[in-house]
């Protein structure tokens, strides 16, 4: 996406770069930190993993907000309608959802702010909700690959390979979240 977008060639060029960076790289890596099989930090303490997760998610959110701001401003400058495509609507929903998810993550850092909720229940809801947000991000990326900008540059087999990237990473993340949930359930019995 970085090569295709040629960042700096136009204001628009920053939008696909920032969104791909946010959802394809930073958010994916932030979620994979907790994977016992493929995490680069698997030998680190949970506390370190949580801090790195938090930092990567914050960076992902900042990239997503900047990418959203850039495309909104670019459309304003060019007199184009905002949020009228499936990609635009899903993208807006995804960024809003990610913002709420990050706010929910803060509650895990300070669980005493919410009474009548156990830390285990907060973690479960955060992980489940995070998976929904991640899948929304993947859907938005895939819808972006159906845009005129992408389909005029990426054709035939390359387009299908590009579509496989968010699809495969979403399957990996779904597998990780379900395995973590099953592991937690088994350890409680």
UniProtKB/TrEMBL annotation:
Leading EC class: translocase
Pfam family, one: Cytochrom_B561
Membrane topology: Multi-pass membrane protein
Keyword Transmembrane helix: yes
Transmembrane segments: 12-34, 54-73, 85-110, 131-151, 157-177
Record has Cytoplasm as a keyword: no
Top-level taxon in the UniProt lineage: Eukaryota
Cofactor needs: heme b
Localization: Membrane
Name assigned to this protein: ascorbate ferrireductase (transmembrane)
Record organism: Jacana jacana
Higher taxonomy: Eukaryota, Metazoa, Chordata, Craniata, Vertebrata
Gene behind the chain: Cyb561d2
